[in-house]
Amino acid sequence: TTGASSNSDSFTTVKSMEDNPDGGCHIYRNGYYRTGISVVEGILEVNIIQMTSIQMTESQAENSLVDFVVTCQGSLPTDVCTVVSDPTCQVSKSVVCDPIIVTDECLLTIRRAFEEPGTYCINITLGDETSQALASALISVNGGEPT
After folding, report:
1. In-domain check, residue 25
2. Where in this chain does the record put each PKAT KLD domain (predicted)?
3. Sign of the C-alpha dihedral, residues 42, 47, 50, 54?
4. Structural domain count, the chain
5. Does residue 44 carry a pLDDT above 70?
6. Domain span including residue 108
7. Quick check: 74 and 48 in contact, CB under 8 A?
8. Which of 46, 66, 97, 143 counts the most CB atoms within 10 A of its CB?
């Protein structure tokens, strides 16, 4: 583009120049284009407000289940991803993504299974078509209450 100017009708004049490799001459094009910009709020903030271990019978004790209660602000999410990593948050152990339907208020409970006791880094990402927001926490799973 060799030049651009704007007028009050939100049209933009564009001049472009292309080289013609065969003859060394230039092709000039002049014209107008119009565009629209949509500003969306997006998901602004995610918070893990509670972590609760689910008590199971001994016959079900293969995995420890933990419920994460999550809130968010901004637009309503359409999907949630949970990344379980080592305590340094560097080595991912599992990733689970699910579509969700949030109709009114951004308050949801996410249940995740942990195969063995230990300390884990949890990243919960809420997303929609235009944005994502993340909350992280360290959790210690002992087969009992998370800490």
Report:
1. no
2. 71-121
3. positive
4. 1
5. yes
6. 43-141
7. no
8. 46
With 0-12 / 13-18 / 19 or more C-beta atoms within 10 angstroms meaning exposed / middle / buried, residue 98 is exposed
Closest Cα to residue 120, out of 85, 91, 93?
A: 85
pTM passes above 0.90? no
Contacts of 144 (CB under 8 A, 6+ apart): 53
Other Cβ atoms within 10 Å of 110 Cβ, number: 19
Instruction: Count Cβ atoms below 10 Å from residue 62 Cβ, excluding itself.
Output: 9
Give the lowest-confidence range in 22-36, 40-54, 58-72, 113-127: 22-36
The residue type found at 48 is I
Question: CATH number for the domain including 49?
Answer: 2.60.40.150
Reduce the DSSP state of residue 101 to 3 states and report it.
coil
* Residue 31 in tokens: 């014209």
Task: Provide the 10 A C-beta neighbour count for residue 55.
Answer: 10
Cα–Cα distance, 14 to 6 (Å, whole number): 9
Local structure of 77: helix, strand or coil: coil
Q: How far apart are CA 111 and CA 82, in angstroms?
A: 10
